[in-house]
Each structure stands twice: as structure tokens, then as C-alpha cells.
Amino acid sequence: MRTIHIGFLITFCLLISCQTSFKETQVSLEPYTIEEGFNLKVLAAEPLLKAPVAIDFDAKGRIWVAQMPGYMNDLQGSGEEDPNGSIVILEDLDEDGIADHSKIFMDSLVMPRALAHVYGGLLYAEPPYLWFVDIEDDKPVNKVMVDSIYAVEGNPEHQPNGLELNIDNWIYNAKSNFRYRRIDGEWKKEPTTFRGQWGITHDNFGRLYYNDNSRILLGDYVLPNSVIENKYFTPNESVDKLLTNDQRVYPAFAGSVNRGYAKGVLNADSILVNATAACSPLVYRGGKFTESYEENVFVCIPEGNLIKRVLLNFTGDSTIAQQAWQKKEFITSTDEGFRPVSLKNGPDGNMYVVDMHRGMIGHHAYMSPYLRDNAKAKELDTIVNFGRILKVSRENIEENVTPDFNSLNGSELVKLLLNDNGWVRDRAQHYLIFKKFNAVIDEVKELALNTKKPLSQIHALYVLEGWNALSFDFLADVGNKSEPQVASHALVLSKDFISVNSIDQANNFFTEVLNRNDVGLDVYLANALGHWIALNKEKFKPLLIKVLKRREQNTTVTDAVLSSIAKTDSILLNDGNIRQNFENTPFIEKLEKTLANKKEDRMNAIYTREVILEDTRTSGSKMFFQICASCHGADGKGIDGLAPPLMGSEHVKNTERLALIILHGLEGPVHVNGKRYDINLAMPGLIRNETISDQDIANIISYVTNAFSDRSKRLSEVRIGELRNVKSGTGMEFTEPELQALDEK
């Protein structure tokens, strides 16, 4: 009997030890409305999560979450430098489809903002660094610094993020002009087009999409880095394009908006009119929604508590976007805590929403007095210890089982390149490369030539590129047999095989492409021909002239050519035949400007910008809290006996007067909004502090006018330098009458 009792006790203890640490959180979705035919489900919520900002899926399909609880804990943004961020793994131990456990992978991080499962490990951003770690038993090992200046300075809203692994095997970022890749264990970093603000995504072709606060969708008309090869040419017609002029949003209620007092921001019902904080677009590539949803873009509008649906139209040389509906959104909510900040395609074909679920989504450096008061009244600053992951799925659609990619062999991964789900295709491509399954090279080549599966062809080509297993002949064969999108990639990849030995094959291939007379193909044909002209002008110049002639006013084709002729640009400009054919065209005009840039050594900014600098308001806010807040208060409302309020002060609204006060100081009495402040202490000026520059003063003015008046203003460094020489009657602090007298001059 004693033995049975002990055995029961051991069994009971084992059962207890296997139970999850947290129960599944019950969250009501009653305040949420989603488009008919779709389901919205909470996969994880607090206390499993706190301020999630980004997710990715591992080889098993588990969700990994970057959490940023240090962001906007209060209206002053306190604690941003505290190491309270983390990366956690969500687990569903009872296998009911809802997370019931959150496992810490890394903690004590400061504002982690992005992560990506690549090369069998985890790439993650923790400013100022970009790190990579291997993973063993869900623990980080072998930590490697990929970039020590990934995000050196700046407001959390305006630092690099994203880490989007594209079809071309490079990893791209928003708010950055660099891309990354690991080859044979070594990390590579190189310039790319500067893109967007928060969040980045790609379509099935490999074009990139992004946005910023007030523009719901930006994007590149062309494949990454195809028009930036000439360092002295800055393309402005084919990358970083506004894809729609319609920035309207349709919130379900009157929420709190930063500049709601400004004309046109709100409608007659106090509802937001246009986007002010758009972020994290996602091209849906899951294959589980209806066909009309494939390659639609979904956009987060956290200030409006909604997610927008946008349609894309591809013309070959451009992309045009339009909102799917007017006066309607894909998801809306009357819960003002709903803050969608990131979207992801999932391994099951569904769409995943990262809901930071925070009262204050805008950084304190940008917060207007209007929003500050509104948020305080609604107690939005108390919504801080929340966070949710939501799943959007199509009704009555069977769930796919996510394969464990770590257990798949090469042939199984090749089959997954045929999958309808773009996430699965991307992951299969990546695993074939980094696991070096090149024993199945014949299967991959066969797929690259399978014209019935064009999307799979593109993936197969980049598997071969990752294995360094391509040749010009093979690319020409694929290009000649395949539809324009696949042939375009063959042209792009062919630039790595420019050789005297391939001149005849190249001439034949390019002639075949030219005869197809497809505008999309002409973009990449023109780009390839420019490189080959340096090798053989006689054979390839006539082909280039034909492309340019029939696309004479096509600015995307022009960008593609100018990017590719860095070695021959002056020769072509002085070529009589070129001059005769293209005088007074965009091509000649831009070519002349490019050569002028080269003469003056004026490069495209992406080749000279090393880091993203901190914006003025953020820099100013740091100095304000270091120097000014102890007397004027963090909220600018002043402190009795020390300093008058800044909020709404006439001394703040007048930037030159404000600069004089900051520089030289102010002696009382002082009036603010008609009230007299007879404080016995004089405010000292900063002019005698040699460590504070004119730029620092300008930054303080930028922050203070934004935070404590209804209009953000700036004053130039030059003017501040001039005001250093304006003195009071005593040569010390100004008095209020002296400042008023200067206003009248």
C-alpha cells in the first residue's frame, strides 16, 4: 500500500510539473469588426505578452515575439533605456490552437524591434546593434555581432527595423539604406535604396513595399538594387514611389489623434480623415484566402484602430495601388487599445496581427499638448501591460499542417517550392541554401525550367544562385522559355556572368527578349545591356538604342539604363548616334546630370550615409529632460517657486524669443497667459556652456514648440548663431520688457 501511495504521489507531481505556467487569456472580440467571410481569433494575450512589436515563425511554425515594454510607459516616455525588453517563444502545450505558455528566449534587452529566423538561428535588432545567435534547445548560443551601427540614434519610431528576407536571398529593412546576407558563414552588408519607416514586405516577384506615417503605401517599381548600380545616379522614377494618392481611413469611432485640432485632420464627427501613423504593410501571399485577395496589401493604421486592405495593379514598369473599399475597412475596432503594429504571413496560410495594445502609440517627443490632455482625460497612459497576437483566417477553410523544416530532406524541400503559400516557398528556398542540399541540384534545375509554375521557377533560380550553381547558358535557356516575370529574373541574374566567352549567347538571348516587346522585360533588358556595352559596344549598343527608342518617355526604363552604364556613361553621351536619337529626352537630361555629379563627386546618398541620425525633436526631448524639466516640469506645466509653465506660453510660441531665453536666460517677473510669475530665481542661459551647440539649441526649440504649443516650429542654426550676439542691457539675463521690445523691432 505504501508503494502504491508513493507511486501515485510521483505521478501526481509529474502531472503538476507538466502543466502550463499561464492559463489561456480570455479576450472579448466584441468591439472588433472584420470583413464578411473571415474569422478573427486571439492566439495569445496578456499576461503571456507585453507590448509585442514584431513576430516571426521558427522551423516548427512556433511564433517568436519581440517585446518592447519600455516604449511609452507614461506620457513622458520614461524608462526607454531600461533593459526590460525580451524575445519570447509562444507555445500551445495543450494543442488547442491558442497559446498557453510563453518561454523566454532572451531578456534584459533594450527596445528590441525586429527579428528573423534565418540560417538556422535568430537575427535580431537591439539598438544600436544587429545580432545573430544560433539556437540550441531554445537557448541562444554563439552570439555574433552582424552590425555595430544598425540603429545608432533616434526615436524608436524612426530606427531601422523589419529584417525581411526577400526572394533574392538578401535581408532588407525599413528606415534603412542597407541590406544583409550571410555567405559561407560571413555576414555581408551593402547599400540599398532607403525605404519607409516601420515595416517592410515583398510580393511574389520580389518587389519591396513599405510606408510612412501619412502615406499608406510606398514601393519600388523594380527589383531591389537593379537601378542603383551607378553611384552618381539617383533614381527617382522607379524606387520609393507613392503608390496611391488616397490616404483616407475610416475608423469606427472618434479616437485620440495627435494633431486633432488642426484643420482637416478630423471630420465633423471628430473622426480621423487621413492616415497619420500608417505602418507595417503586408503583401498577402498565403494562398488560403480567395483568389481576389492574393497579393493584396494589408496596412496597419494603429492610430485609427484598424487594418486597411489595398489592391495592387502591376503594369510591368510600375505598380498602382487603390483602396479596396471606400468608407469601409478590413478590420475596425472601437477598442482604443487595439494598436496593430505588424502583420505577417503564416506557415498555415493565414495572416497574423501583432497588436501592441497600448494606450499611447506615438512617441512623447512628437506628442502635441492636444493629445497629451486627451490621453490623460481618457487614461490612455494606463493601458501599458497588454499585448496580443491575432489570427485572420478565411471561414470554412481547412488548416494546413506546418512541416518541421529541420526534419525535411532536400527533395522534400524542393517539393515545397511548389506550395501555394509564399511563406512556405520562401522558407523552403532558404533551407535548401543554408543547409547546402545541393545534391538535389538536378531537381531544382528541372523546376527552374518548369514553365507551368512560374513562381516556383523564380524560387528555384535563387536556390541555384545561393548555391553558386548558375551559368549564363542556363539563365538564357530559362529566360527564352519562360513568361516575362521569370525572364526578368534571368536577366537580372545574368549580370553576374558578363564574359567575353558569352558575347554571342548574350546577343542571341537579348535579341529574343527584345523581339517579345514586353514593357516589363524591357526594363531589365535595358539594365542588362548597359553592362554588356562596356564589353562590346558594337553588338549591344544597337539593341540598347532599340529599347530606348520604343520606351523613349518611359522613366523606369531610363532609370534602368542609367544605373547600368557607369563605365560607359561619358562615351555614350559623346556618341553622335545616341545624341541624334535622344536629344531633349529624359535619358540625355539625366545622363548629363549624372556626369555632372561624377565630376563633382556627388554620390547617391545611400553610398555616403553610414547611419540614420536622430531627428531634432527626439534629440531636443533628451536635452529638455536633462536640463529643463527639473524646473519647468516634465509636462511643461511649471513648478511653483522654480519656473513658470511652458504649456501654451507666448514665450514658447515666439521661436526667436525662446532662443534668446535659452541662450541668455530670463529674469523675472514673467507673465504667461496673463498670469504674473514673480519668482525670485533667474533662469540661467546656456550660452556659457561650450558643450552645447547651436544645433542643440535648435533641437530644444523643435521639441519644446511641439510639446507645449499647438504648432511645432524650428529655428535655423544660422539664426541661433546670430542671436548669440544679441545682448540684454546688463549683458546677462533678459527681462520680459526687453524681449517684448525686441519683438517690435
Automatic annotation (TrEMBL):
Gene3D superfamilies: Cytochrome c-like domain, TolB, C-terminal domain
Pfam families xrefs: Cytochrom_C, DUF7133
SUPFAM superfamilies, A to Z: Calcium-dependent phosphotriesterase (SSF63829), Cytochrome c (SSF46626)
Keywords for the protein's UniProt record, in alphabetical order: Heme, Iron, Metal-binding
Segments forming domain Cytochrome c: 615-708
Record GO terms (molecular function): electron transfer activity; heme binding; metal ion binding
Name of the protein in its database record: Dehydrogenase
Protein's organism: Maribacter litoralis
